[in-house]
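#lab-general

N.A. 3:47 PM
ok so I finally got the sequence cleaned up, no stray characters, all 191 residues accounted for. can someone with queue access submit it? mine expired

B.Y. 3:52 PM
send it over

N.A. 3:53 PM
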Amino acid sequence: MGNIYLVGFMATGKTTVGKELAKKKKWQFADLDELIELKERRTISQIFAQEGEPYFRRVEKRVLQEVAKEDGFVVACGGGIVLDADNIKVMKKTGKMICLCACPEVILKRAEGFSHRPLLNVANPREKIEFLLKMRAPYYAQADYTVDTSSLSVAEAVDKIMALLFPKKRKAATGGSKRARPKKIRRRVKG
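B.Y. 4:20 PM
back already:
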């Protein structure tokens, strides 16, 4: 299968669910934002403030291409990674793309108090969330599967992803072996 790429808006559970999914699959976990921070030796907020979003997206693209060379990773991607069509191609070519989504109220509640969310450091964060969700919807729709985490626990989200990607084979009701049907007996009536 390659890798599993978790995409979706911020605060939909990509990192938290990704870590648990990797643990369950016995795969490696990678958070692209953390890898970017290590590579750049500064936080995402600092990169946005000092260099701007276009610079950040270029670094993000390079880091994704590096991770995509690996196999057996669950990768938590930044919310805007889907804005670049090349990123979507890379993810689809090297694995499965799962979009985690949630309603704006849940996103806002989960993201409250986190200053490391540069796109929400605005006067009206709810309005910004709704705008960005609408703008990114066609990009997120390109994922292989979508899982709404609004009312799911982490374990439930992991189970749902596992069921989508690794469905269990159904056994026949008879335990897997075919039973012969009894033949109908026909009687000839002389007459």
